Amino acid sequence: MLAMKILISVQLLGLTLLCVGIFHCQAWPRYTFVVEETPYRRLCSTKNILTVNGQFPGPTLYARMGDTIIVDVYNKGNRNITIHWHGVKQPRNPWSDGPDYITQCPIQPGGSFTQTIIFSSEEGTLWWHAHSEWDRATVHGAIVIYPNKGATYPFPKPHAEFPIILGEWWKEDIGQLYNETIQNGGDPNISNAFLINGQPGDLYPCSKPDTFKLMVDYGKTYMLRLINSAVQEILFFSIANHKVTVVGSDASYTKPFSSDYVTISPGQTIDLLFTADQTPNHYYIAAKAYVGGAGIVYDNTTTTAILQYNGNYTSTSTPSFPNLPSHNDTKASVHFTGSLRSLADQNHPVDVPREITTSLFYTLSVNTLPCLKNSCAGPNGTRLAASVNNISFVDPSIDILQAYYYHVNGAFGTRFPNFPPLLFNFTAQDLPLYLQTPKQGTEVKILKYNATVEIVFQGTNLVAGDDHPMHLHGFSFYVVGWGLGNFDEDKDPLTYNLVDPPLQNTIAVPVNGWTTIRFKADNPGVWFMHCHLDRHMSWGMDMTFIVKNGKGLGAKILPPPPGMPPC
Question: Where is the Plastocyanin-like domain (predicted)?
């Protein structure tokens, strides 16, 4: 007679116990996230912002590779909210992934939702953030994933580790900014400041006393877990007089390489080592925008923190300032990103798909839509939009995951094109105006379980060429190639790196350029893909994959949890 397995979940002393049978129980850490309005003062004025547990940035979550944690989210704020665990693959568990109207309807004010966060192969730094409207501007925090017990970093253990979260600050309410942008159809107002760990730094008014300080001992090596939570900008980052060694990106180890600066896209994480080997003093840490597109309005300010050596010494009156690249230095941006390589050693092997079963070519465009009486704030009175393969995504009324799981007809279509419907010189300077108008729709791309997928992202110069940090939920992918200009299907694949390409979840497609990624569709569920510049995402530069179930229980979507937020 087969022994009966009993599955019991109880909460005890902040842990969730998963018990199988009588003798084996596994404790899962449990966190409480209370989303609430909290007053914060920046740039000489105070405003209420949405926070988690009153903290800005929000609390850091800690886990080990392969752990599972539980987060109870309570919405005590004044508007709908969802929380996304950026870069966590969530095997078979799209229910807790978080993007609104993709895998769940929002948590309404007064509501709650318990999310199960399942880590698998991730190791390093990730982050969590709101995934509704632009609330991630203040609702975000770090995720630190340590190696398994008994395992070590593939580099000497640093003396100490520090999360460094880069962000943006607006004097106006971020919800009001979002609503104004959607209503008027134009570009959003630029931010008033960039932030390092929630602080603008001493180059901004009323900010010097609270400037973030990083205290170090001479001769010691430190790790910075760098996260770009900025809503609208790719950023350059540097430490005066100190080189950094890159050892990881998006919770995957890289071959170490040294650099004077870092280029980091919204959504991306970079793990850095640096040694405090300079003359004891104060040194500026700084970050500013990188904007590759011509004529794009941007925040041209610089955020700073202070690297301060411990000990007795006479410091200079003004700290040394790092040499950051120019704001439009595309060469510097792609040089850094193109230097990333997977560690690819015996303990961290790569598994790049070689035989591709699903080839996709996706154009990424900024577009325009006609506006009644040319009354919108876009070019020539139009409404700004954005698209993937000329389809500007429209949110459904019920989330796509529930519609798919429960076979609700009419919520979405399944005819997302594999290739752009219109072929033209994608990066030409002067393109016909008729190309600027996209179709609008809620189309998804169906992938077979275990399909090996290649996507060529091609940026276009419609309306305004720009960089596009593309993020895929539910997967990490190998970045096997990139280039400037139009992709050449005959020549460019010959340059692909199939030996040690970086494994990432967010990659910046360069302005008027292309990037090729590969991944295996071995995670059944509904998974969002979008540009992580929030204005582009809000304009429609996003789409959804549905990965079908495979054979066997281990290849099927998990059942939905109780208490899913109502639509």
Answer: 35-149, 161-312, 420-550
Residue 450: helix, strand or coil by DSSP? coil
**From CA 139, how far away is CA 82, in angstroms rounded?**
10
Contacts of residue 475, defined as CB under 8 A and 6 or more positions apart, other chains included, come to 89, 505, 519, 521, 523, 527
- Both 449 and 483 in one domain: the answer is yes
- CA torsion 219-225-229-233 (nearest 10°) is 60
Do 125 and 179 lie in one domain? The reply is no
Is the CB of residue 83 less than 8 Å from the CB of residue 109? Answer: no
pTM: 0.95
Nearest to 57 by CA among 187, 272, 308, 230: 230
Q: Are 232 and 266 in contact (CB under 8 A)?
A: yes
Q: What whole-number distance in Å separates Cα of residue 104 and Cα of residue 567?
A: 8
Task: Please name which of 309, 264, 271 lies closest in space to residue 288, comparing C-alpha atoms.
Answer: 264
How far apart (Å, rounded) are the C-alpha atoms in residues 229 and 39? 20
How many Å is the Cα radius of gyration of the chain?
A: 23
pLDDT in tens, 184-238: 999 999 999 999 999 999 999 999 999 999 999 999 999 999 999 999 999 999 9
| Residue written as token pair 């495979």 | 550
Same domain, 304 and 450: no
Helix, coil or strand: residue 385? strand
Q: Strand pairing partners for 474?
A: none
| Domain encompassing residue 77 | 28-148
Cβ atoms of 235 and 112 closer than 8 Å: no
Is residue 361 classed as helix, strand or coil in its secondary structure? strand
Tell how far CA 449 is from the center of its chain.
Answer: 25
